[in-house]
Amino acid sequence: MESHPSSLSSPTPASGFEYVFPAIRGVQARREFYVSMCPLRLIPKIFLFDEDDLDPELRAQRVLNKGRIPALSSYIVDNPDDYVFSALTASVDGHMRFAPIAEQGPGLRIGQVHIPMSARFLINDGQHRRAAIETALEQNPDLGDETIAVVFFHDAGLARSQQMFADLNRHAIRPARSIGVLYDHRDELAKITRLLALKSPALRGFVEMERSTLSARSSKLFTLSALYYATTALLQGIEIHSDAHAADLAGAYWEAIDELIPEWQLVRQRKMTAADVRRQYLHSHGIALHALGRLGNTLLRQSMEQTAWQPRLDPLAKVDWSRSNPDWEGRAIVGGRVSKNHQNVVLTVNYLRQKLGLALGPEEHNVEANYLRGER
Prior knowledge:
It contains 14 helices and 12 strands. By secondary structure, the chain is α/β, with parallel strands linked by helices. The strands form 3 sheets. Strands 3-7-4-8-2-1-6-5 form an 8-stranded mixed sheet. Strands 9-10 form a two-stranded parallel ribbon. Strand 1 and strand 2 (31-39) form a beta hairpin. Helix 6 crosses helix 8 and helix 11 packs across helix 13 (342-356). The termini are far apart. This is DNA sulfur modification protein DndB. It holds the Pfam family DndB. It comes from Nonomuraea dietziae.
């Protein structure tokens, strides 16, 4: 629907002014619904979000998480030629009249849906997209002429709207982080990580590219997501001249680590299985890779020359990476299970820093002090 007068039906005593949307009519659960395209500039004006000051049982939506909005709006503004937003779903508290373009055949499903301006539009699914669109328009008003798909359902009351929200989100599953890295062509670090996984002699063939967890019998040593977070930590704040330079630097680091971990080499030589290594040792788990990435970041910041930083890694060859090593309990392992939370990553980094004779930073010192006092 456009905002100029031709998009509005003529006022009549019965109906007053109307919104008129080009639409396709469909049927689900014996109820008609309509799919249309709406200019972005109209989204904040006509689509309401359920008031967050109501009690949960009186709302048809969750409370808006305002912390998500900046990233979503930046995604639109920063990628004006390449962003993708899925459809909004809205309930209309008012009469909807569909006018098909033909009286029979396919034309019965194509036409215009007329909605009184007095009707209330309530977002059932897509409230964060709606808020992000509003913020993006403030930064770039030219986006207002672009459109987003909207699915209109008739508002059958609070219970029905709440059930729609539950049904729309019941089977929604966030994709594994690994496949997100695999398919992300905007994130430079994702590109570098994919390149490492596919071409590094130390990693090629042993990185799970799709899943973010490894099954007990998997032939892979690492997940792509774990390698991504570790490489991100490695290159954080490092002056990089190009993607090729970053890939070479990260590749050199992980190959240097590989030389100090004989079990990784034994897997490539088929003298050990990846499953046995993961079960018996810590070094192929995400927490260890992340810790090694942070450790490498310190060395790279101190000296970008490989001849200077590589020998400083040598003490890692004497680290007992076996999961039975009691030193790991409370650091990387809690109650017999590998822990991935931030505090355990820091404690694992601390352990490796001490092995290399590196000083702890302020946060690391505080976490270590709490650990030694038993406050973990």
